[in-house]
Amino acid sequence: MSTKTALSLAIALVAASAVIFSTSAFACDQAAARKVQTMLHDMATWYEKDGKITFKWGSDWDHAAPHERLGLIRGFADSDACLTGRPREISFFRMGKLVGKASPTTGIRLVD
User: Fold this and answer.
1) 111 pLDDT more than 50
2) pLDDT class of 34 with cuts at 50, 70, 90
3) How far apart are CA 110 and CA 112, in angstroms?
4) What is the set of domains in the chain, with CATH numbers?
5) Rounded Cα gap, residues 75 and 6, in angstroms
6) CA distance linking residue 85 with residue 62, whole number of Å
7) How far is CA 50 from CA 1, 104, 106, 110, in A?
8) Cα(first)–Cα(last) distance of the chain, in Å?
9) Contacting residues for 31 by C-beta, under 8 A, at least 6 apart
10) Binning pLDDT at 50, 70 and 90, where does residue 87 land?
11) CB 22: neighbour CB atoms within 10 A?
12) Residue 109 to residue 11: CA distance in whole angstroms
């Protein structure tokens, strides 16, 4: 599968998650959340330390438009909240540079 095709498929799946996670983390579809994370696992790696997530994008990030990037970040944050039962602090990186943040207190945003 080409990078563009994989990215398009991931973005479509993440966009669908907006409907799945529209109520609350406690009333979400965990099977759908796992599918989102499985798809994103092909595009990135992440780990948890002290209750916070560090997320490292692969090269697919470079091919995404800003609105797509925000959707990808939101998709991961929403799926994580669904699976853990609460939103958490998540820092998103590409090649060592902070590119996005998700926070239960300040929301989800891209970082320039």
Assistant:
1) yes
2) very high
3) 7
4) 3-110 (3.30.300)
5) 15
6) 31
7) 36, 15, 19, 23
8) 30
9) none
10) very high
11) 10
12) 17
Query: Could you give phi then psi for residue 32, rounded to 5 degrees?
Result: -65, -40
Three-state DSSP class for 21? Answer: coil
DSSP single-letter state for residue 25: G
Q: Which of 4, 1, 2 is nearest to 63 (CA)?
A: 4
Phi, psi of 31 (to 5 degrees): -65, -40
Residues forming a β-bridge with 53: 48, 90
The Cα 5–Cα 22 span in angstroms is 26
Largest CA distance in the chain: 38
* Residue 47: its H or E element: strand 44-49
Sign of CA dihedral 69, 75, 76, 78: positive
Residue the block writes with tokens 């697919």 = 60
Task: Compute the distance between CA of residue 40 and CA of residue 55 in angstroms, rounded to an integer.
Answer: 10
Residue 56, Cβ neighbours under 10 Å: how many? 16
